[in-house]
Amino acid sequence: MTMSSNSAGKKTYSAESANPDTEAGASGSRAAVCVSGSEKVPDGDDRNTAAVAGDAAETTELRKIIHVDMDAFYASVEQRDNPALQGLPVIVGGRPNGRGVVAACSYEARVFGVHSAMPSAEAGRRCPDAIFVKPRFQAYKQVSQQIHAVFREFTDVIEPLSLDEAYLDVTGNTLFGGSAYRLAREIKLLIRERTQLVASAGVSYNKFLAKIASDYRKPDGLFCILPEQGESFVAGLEVGRIHGVGKVTEARMHDLGIQTGADLRQWSEEELAREFGKSSAYYYRVARGIDHRPVRVSRTRKSIGSERTFADNLHDRTAMLAILDKLSEELHGQMRERELASKTITVKVRFADFSTFTRAHSLAQGVLDAASSRRALPFLLDRALNLRQDASPASGRDGTSAGSVGSGHRRGRRSGVRLLGVAFSGLVAAGEERPVQLEMDWPES
Ligand SMILES: [Mg+2]
Question: What is the pLDDT of residues 359-368, one digit of tens each?
Fold first, then answer.
């Protein structure tokens, strides 16, 4: 979509709407609309009822997307299930004396600068009073199913991003006068009622903006970005808040004098391509509030995985295999419980220097059972280990020969392996045609 068709789009959106989804639609011209869950929602006039007929063909192009994201998810579940933890800094993840990382933390812990993916040891230093809790994925998955049941009451077009996060395409929704904003509010209410947990929601005309919107007033946020507000909203946005701009890219943009979306917009597509390569087209579009990615019901990346970080680096191949066996066994147990099946197994190896390699094996037909996974493990491990070797042709053979940690592993032997993981991807429901919409992060143990 070009800019002009984008602005054509915004016309149809407001013309179409019995509901521009927000208060601003009614009051007209304010630049941005924000309504957090804790703020008062002016119930009477939060929708523009000036419906205009006859725009149906055009309006089909404009989508209504809700991004729902639970607040401090794992930590909130822990605080809900153990009232003694309420109001306290709770960190879910690895222990502070180990080498694991923070999977999630409560808002009380965030005050101390703790955030997810931070090494637990660092989190313990920043927040000495934090209470570290081991993740209970079973409990989180249960909540995940509850919130998905809520989503399904309103739309079939659901794209889960993780256990606690999903995009919903509600373009076709007719409840609440078709207002996606009010529908999002209803979803938040139902989630709170059924799980005693708090979700934030963002509403907009594409995924990019809906995701930013859900984060904008967290926790307990509800925020809407209208089509006519998209461009100006992005203009004021710090580039670091743009989904897909990581720390490295952010630093590079700052070096180039790009602090905000408005700065980013000054750059032509060619100029961006020179600096950022493949991602430049995405940056070019989102700087203009444009994102055409559909909400994908069936994601290609549906996986279940588990990994272990070791206090002391591992050097022994037999020991590594034993751990991979155990992880694979456990995951097969979890898949059986949930009646899931996979045809792709992946082994992940991280060396002491944090270089990380994965090797995968897929069946052409059918799904993996525990025995076929077990047979694949030595092969995958050896290939992952060999990847680490710095050009030693000596171990060119298939790495499957038993017990042989070939010369190619010398470097690996010296530095050791600090983490091993197994994952199964492309999960499908055993016996069902439709792939199951479930994704797990690699839990740190
Ligand atoms: Mg979340």
Answer: 999 887 778 8
